[in-house]
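Researcher: I'd like a structural prediction for the single chain below. Treat it as a standalone chain; there are no partners to consider.
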Amino acid sequence: MIKGVLLGFACYAAYAISDAFVKSLHGSLPAYEAVFFGAVLMLSALPFIRKPQDRWIEVFKANRPSLWWVRAISGAICNIAAVIAFTALPMAEAFALIFLLPIFVTLLSVVFLKEHVGWRRWSAVVAGFIGVLVVLRPGFRALGVGHLAAMICGLSGALSVVALRMAGAHEKRISLYGAGVVGPLVAGGVLMLPHFVWPELWQWGLLAGYGLLAGLAGVLLMFATQHAPANRVAPTQYSQMLWAIGFGYWLFGDHLDWPMLIGIALILGSGLFTLVREGKVTPWWRRAKLV
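Model: Treating it as a single chain, here is the predicted structure.
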């Protein structure tokens, strides 16, 4: 189990470093172009995700095609929104709003899965949204497209998780991963065609770090959930906030005031509590046949 948890920390460290690479572009390339090249490089993880009995065509097809499309479309929106958010906001602030994902999952699960949610999880939802108000402080500080993009990223990511839950054990891992890569690849490729900008050498380096590390993170997550229960691996994602604060301070000159830190703590606490509560039932990783 310890090995699985450590792999979980390594996975989310890779994700955080990947995000730092794309933030280092400083918006010098359109977000959808960065997403396209990142997705191309993420395809390198497919040989490690694929099981011997899997067929390559299953990257593009699923037993329930409608859920594959939900994963692909929500993945495209989530990736593009994440790049916009990291470009426009301090990393910690962007992560705080993206980490509304577990709260959005709770709300969407009530609507689409008819799940029963007790008062503890509803309290976590309320605390999370209070944290958002503390972070954003509407009327007291300027809000921009980055804040909207971060919340859209969290919402679209939650929609993808709900699709995984609805897929249950009916889909193969290669199909689920494929949808999450093919969607951003196609959407980014189509959007970048009218105003394509050929990257310079230094931009290629950052794009390579962004895509390859994201692919590595996907492989590490797979191995992590093979060595430890998913509800033990899931909380390790919150270690990204430590990376975000460190990268933000040392690399990007970000500074967080006390109200923002309090809001971030509320959002992280509510999200982590939600994950712990959901860990008392069948984790969505197992329902999605990711282990």
